[in-house]
Write a structure and sequence with these properties.
alpha+beta; Alpha-Beta Plaits; four-stranded antiparallel sheet; 4 helices
Length: about 150
């Protein structure tokens, strides 16, 4: 689920909280090297999915090219976006390094909050990353992964 109830209430006295926190996240391979190859992609996706589930993160969409990846996700409020990305990047790079040649993510990331109205558009954009890049049909709002990137 992309939203939920946080806390259990009852004997511990924690209030419950409804949440729906949607993000579009982008991060790159080290030095934008073409490391996210077709043979590595299924492993990276599987590890990201497993780690996301473990963290209580709901993945709406994943998409990539060989040098960066996009993720649309619901992240619970108990988890900082930076911690979520650190866990996802760490788990995926560790898994790839155990099975293949050296793999590393670049430091930093891009994070945008999303509203329900734009969610389907962003999901479609992320799922079709390869086509957008092949056709040069990029939406620059969704491609930034560091503050150094041009606006």
């Amino acid at each position: 689920m992309a939203h939920g109830v946080l806390g259990v209430g009852g004997t511990e006295g924690f209030p419950t909280a409804y949440w729906r926190l949607l993000y579009h996240l982008v991060w790159a391979t080290y030095e934008r090297q073409p490391l996210l190859t077709a043979d590595r992609e299924p492993l990276v996706y599987r590890i990201l999915g497993g780690k996301a589930s473990e963290l209580g993160v709901f993945i709406h969409a994943l998409g990539n090219t060989t040098d960066h990846i996009h993720l649309v996700a619901g992240i619970p409020p108990k988890l900082a976006v930076s911690e979520c990305l650190g866990q996802l990047k760490g788990a995926s790079s560790h898994a790839v390094n155990r099975r293949a040649a050296p793999f590393r993510w670049q430091e930093g990331y891009g994070a945008l909050t999303l509203c329900d109205e734009i969610l389907p558009t962003v999901i479609a954009y992320v799922r079709n990353q390869k086509q957008h890049h092949d056709q040069g049909a990029l939406d620059t709002r969704f491609e930034r992964d560091t503050c150094d990137d041009p606006p």
